[in-house]
Amino acid sequence: MTRSTVAVRPVRAAADLKKFIAFPYRLHRGDPQWVPPLRMDMRKLLSRRKNPFFQHAEAEYFLAERRGGRGAEVVGRIAAIHNRGHNEFHEDTVGFYGFFESINDQSVADSLFHAAANWLKQRELTVMRGPVSFSTNDECGLLIDGFDLPPAVLTPYTPPHYVDLTERAGFTKARDLFLYHSVNDQLPERLIRGAKLIAKRKKITLRPIDMKHFSEEVELIKQVYNSAWERNWGFIPMTEAEIDHLAKDLKPVIVPELVVFAEREGELVGFAVALPDLNVALKTNPSGRLFPGILKILWKARKITRLRVMLLGVVPEYRSYGADALMYHWIWDKGYALGYRWAEAGWILEDNTAMNNGLVRMGFEHYKTLRLFDRPL
Questions:
Q1: In CATH, what number does 182-369 get?
Q2: CA of 202: how far to CAs of 111, 245, 265, 322, in Å?
């Protein structure tokens, strides 16, 4: 490709958005670990009309193009994100970037970061953090190890050179996020026995989600979700509209036995959600298009043996009651009975000592790390 000036411009027309969505499919074609999402899901995620994230945020999408003999060719993309909900909650002035994709060329990456930084500075933000697409409630972080292992559902895969492109552009580590996987076929009996004794004494009981009353179950989750995670670094409370939106998206793929509620005398005090690793099925559809790819996806989905424990939280006043261990044990037992033989848990903040130590005690092993980066504006 002829070396020439990189031009970065905002996405304006529908054709530009189509290019923004399409670029990773071409860029990562042939990478054995990259999993192509459904293009229709990406369109919905990026839609300012359909995604309730935009009720408290705004974003600009940018394309990097290089002109050559065949005209302008897309060589990168990025989104600049102003999350007012984050800034109000944390009382800071952090802006974000996400959906970063680039060829392995520092000039392209620098041009993309420059465009995003300028857009954020215009909104009087002082730090650019990322990647988050769109927030820490979504896919976030660059992979810094475990590049030879497939990503589980709703976790990112990024090639090794993205770390170099980011650090050479002046970013430094903000936080690491740990991912764990199971290394045994059952949880330690001594740990579970102790958790059961505590839970019995504290009157903690477990039950699966009731799919016949799904809307009511989601309303219960709303009551505890934000309090269960509010002390975490970078946590952004989800609005009711965002929880409804996520629940609607997840409902078709939920396995009821793998969504468990912890209750004390009828009051919800915690919950956990594990999903089949749909990336196993999505991998069979490299184009990301629904038709005819859906047939391959549905066929492969019947044979998934991997799980991801994507959410597990307990409200603060009940965290010493053994509910977390019991919920992991529930998912482990039910999942194994349904034919699942591997599970990923996380992510967990690197400095969340209690959660990290607890997962190790339960037989999980830290096997991947994602990193969030900061750069002053």
A1: 3.40.630.30
A2: 57, 34, 10, 9
